[in-house]
Amino acid sequence: MKWIRDVTGRVQHLEWYRASGFVDSVAAWSVADLAVTRAGTGTLAEAAFHGVPLVMVPLPTSAENHQLHNARAVEESGAGVVVEQSQLSGRLAEAVLECLPSDVRTRMRQSALARSPRGAAGKLADLVEATVSARPAPASGESSPI
Known about the structure:
The chain has helices spanning 2-11, 25-31, 41-50, 66-77, 88-99, 102-114, 120-134, and strands at 35-37, 54-56, 80-82. With 146 residues, it is mostly helical. Strands 1-2-3 form a 3-stranded parallel beta sheet, with helices on both faces. Helix 3 crosses helix 6 (102-114).
């Protein structure tokens, strides 16, 4: 993992930055103050659930450019900043530095948490159960549409 040695050497003076190889994602999300990520739905959902502000670099080859659309929605909510891959060399460090002040990260964290209300999965399950329960039972010999 030559890249870790290279990055670590260049950022060792930054107390707030830690380069790491593979880590348990749940542990990482639960202690992160800011993350630089792609913009897939799983990543964005995890960040929102844990209230982690994001600097997102959408994968430009994603189907129908969906990662850019995902990232723009997060940015519009105030929970992240988009840096397109074509702008990495000039914009990524600038975007990270813009997000570092505590008051900025606090606002972004609140916006992220608002994107993933507590109990949302349970509420969705309750809604599905209520919808299924409200349907009349199929007549004998008929198959259920669900």
